Amino acid sequence: ITSAVAFDILPLKLHPFSQSTPTGLDCVGWKRRISSLVITDGALDKTALTDDVGSEEDLYEDFRSSNHRYGHPGGGGEQLAINELISDGSVVYAEALWDHVTMDDQELGFKAGDVIEVMDATNKEWWWGRILDSEGWFPASFVRLRVNQDEPMEDYPLKVEGGKEDDSSSGTRRFGMGQTTKDQMRTNVINEIISTERDYIKHLKDICEGYIKQCRKRADMFTEEQLKTIFGNIEDIYRCQKKFVKALEKKFNKDHPHLSEVGSCFLEYQTEFQIYSEYCNNHPNACMELSRLTKVNKYVYFFEACRLLQKMIDISLDGFLLTPVQKICKYPLQLAELLKYTNPQHRDFKDVEAALNAMKNVARLINERKRRLENIDKIAQWQSSIEDWEGEDVLVRSSELIYSGELTKISHPQAKSQQRMFFLFDHQLVCCKKDLLRRDILYYKSRINMDDMEMLDIEDGKDKDFNISVKNAFKLHCQDTEEVHLFCAKKPEQKQRWLKAFENERRQVQLDQETGFSITEVQKKQAMLNASKQHHTGKPKAVTRPYYDFLMRQKHPTLPTTLPQQQVFMLAEPKRKPSNFWQNISRLTPFRK
């Protein structure tokens, strides 16, 4: 269980807890002697902090120098060994841990779970790889090497299907293991679930009572908005988890733990667990706000005083705030382990099997919402690169780029044809025109409301509405206004991709309605503000077409200038600085599904 596991639906870096200590945070740092510490009426006794440990400055420097920051180590550490394998003629495969969405055609876009052939790993941060017929750069920290390079790797949870393990790996275990031993293994898993849940409740209680309660006493130091940013909805999570652990304990058989039936508890609370989505999405903001505050000494002393008063283990606040993110990631692993040691005849078997799928779905939903929120920055940057933009921002109605490409649009009257670039978002199709000389520059022309349209597949031949012969064509038709748009693709396969994209767009809209996904006005405005700040200096000089063609003929185009930033938790695609994606925006192949 301690190794990294990537589900077929959700790639997560998963680890078990170590007793009551949050995963990755069980190293003890910055120990010191403090004789007494008191918070009276919201005031912090500073003398308690300085006794026996020197000046405030010494204390602060000691704290800062030994304070731990935890994050994904990223890929690239094994590049020497990888390149040796590649140079020897071996094929090296890596598996995507996160989605890599890019608007730069020199980068390789992929989905979580995709298998990438690593062709060059000489650079620590960016590797060169291939998926089918697409090649490009990708962040090394977004992938992990496959455990077995010689044959397809199956992660542990995928080996459990219908409660039965793969014959090649566990046949001996299944038939050679006695019933008593298997019951004992199930007992161990049940005990782990119960004990880690109790420890988790204590962590949440400590955060709510040890930190939030004390922070609210200090209105001179914290605003309610700051507290909402730092702690998110962790109090809601605490209330939910208290009810959940009570439900687990009711199902826990103390005399015979292996007979416990806990699967139904996860099924009962699967909907409530979706509140973790809000917390996980806010967590990077919490880390940034904490980083800003801890540059001021009084906040460092205050947070440490809260920890000592609550008698919490020696971990900084950002470490405690990581715990809920890790917890929701761990449930699928625990359930997969439980299912492994549950006989099909056990009364809990079907519920555990259903609970495993349910918690995978919860994790998938959280991961998808995280990815969507990170994508709004990319969409805002894209819009800021479009010349002569008119009307409302894309983010007012959309949050996902479904597909993009070049099409011929035929309009009334005289059936005039125009070559245009189209970008299909949820709810709308945006039409742009390429600059005649600088083909990397796009001008806004129009947009179509997809909520009012139905897509019609048109056979090759003469079209009655437009009275012309068409090939690889389809229409968008509005029944209310009788508005008709005719489009032609260059090749049949391109037409099929567009037809599939329109289906995906409708499916995405329906799914968002069912799950209640939405982006707040604050998030939209912030994304557009960030994009305008990055864009105010003007666009970079365009790459000339001959030089661009030369680059694309090379195996290794210019290495991306942006480096992926590491992130404290590993739930979705790590953020990284935006690249100058508008240089070559005419080829957005990573978005094609």
From TrEMBL:
Domain annotation PH: ranges: 400-507
Molecular function as annotated in GO: guanyl-nucleotide exchange factor activity
Biased composition (Basic and acidic residues): 156-167
Record region (Disordered): 156-178
Domain DH stretches: 185-369
Subcellular location: Cytoplasm
Chief place of localization: cytoplasm
PROSITE patterns in the cross-refs: DH_1 (PS00741), DH_2 (PS50010), PH_DOMAIN (PS50003), SH3 (PS50002)
This protein's UniProt keywords: Cytoplasm, Guanine-nucleotide releasing factor, SH3 domain
UniProt GO BP: intracellular signal transduction
Pfam families (UniProt xref): RhoGEF, SH3_1, SOS1_NGEF_PH
Domain SH3: 89-148
Record-level GO cellular component terms: cytoplasm
Entries under InterPro entries matching the protein: DBL_dom_sf (IPR035899), DH_dom (IPR000219), GDS_CDC24_CS (IPR001331), PH-like_dom_sf (IPR011993), PH_domain (IPR001849), SH3-like_dom_sf (IPR036028), SH3_domain (IPR001452), SOS1_NGEF_PH (IPR055251)
Keyword Transmembrane: no
PANTHER family named among the record's database cross-references: RHO GUANINE NUCLEOTIDE EXCHANGE FACTOR 4 (PTHR47544:SF2)
Protein name: ARHG4 factor
Organism: Nyctibius grandis (Great potoo)
